[in-house]
């Protein structure tokens, strides 16, 4: 099977998609990404705005209705979930194969 | 206070605005030049993004994200392009970008804006050429731009009075059109320079 051209996802895109399994506005995404990555990934506002724009274009996320008139709220789409699943499988394979090879090579 | 300056480098522009703030001039707006308000000197951290918006709601959502993140929106409108932010929260990061691609991306958008501006001037230039509104011969024979009857037969004060009176009109008649090719050339140069900066930052 030919691999989807968006795989592998970048670390930031992966965390943004993951945080949008629940609807969230921009600033909440920033906080969730930081939380999910245990503080390893800190995105700045200008960078996140561009990333959201790009993910909307790719139809991986979509705007949803919200009571907040100043902040747009987004949610992951079915296509976004599918790409997230594909990247998860890619990483699971890498983890599995690496653990196996380490065990065989006596690396702990 | 108003200041007029043109920057093609957002880093240089931000540095200048920080210097102005350290002298006690706070940026309050940018439309026809930069507008400053006198206040107390302050060690500001100002950063600039470049974005145009189709809808007001998109623009509000955009700067609200920055304000939520600890950056005050100082200047810029829905369609001004340049957006100015000042760090106001201690907890905020030192920059409004956290990767090279987005830092470079604003130069790409700036470059595209100058290019589309150059393209939008083209039909005007074409219209001027096709309607023969442009007198290229006037460069070699500026006399034909003067319409005062018998001007060239006059002499002395009579001649100079009439000549000087008509000169500004003749000048516009003959050379006002050059503003368009000059504008187009400038826009193309600015577009090229912004593109170069984009490439340079992406490679760094």
Automatic annotation (TrEMBL), chain A:
Gene3D superfamilies: Winged helix-like DNA-binding domain superfamily/Winged helix DNA-binding domain. SUPFAM superfamilies: Winged helix' DNA-binding domain (SSF46785). It comes from the Bacteria. InterPro entries: Metal_resp_DNA-bind_regulator (IPR052509), Tscrpt_reg_PadR_N (IPR005149), WH-like_DNA-bd_sf (IPR036388), WH_DNA-bd_sf (IPR036390). The lineage of its organism: Bacteria, Bacillati, Bacillota, Bacilli, Bacillales. Residues 18-84 form the Transcription regulator PadR N-terminal domain. This is PadR family transcriptional regulator.
Automatic annotation (TrEMBL), chain B:
The chain crosses the membrane at residues 113-134, 170-192. Keywords: Membrane, Transmembrane, Transmembrane helix. It comes from the Bacteria. This is DUF2812 domain-containing protein. It comes from Neobacillus novalis.
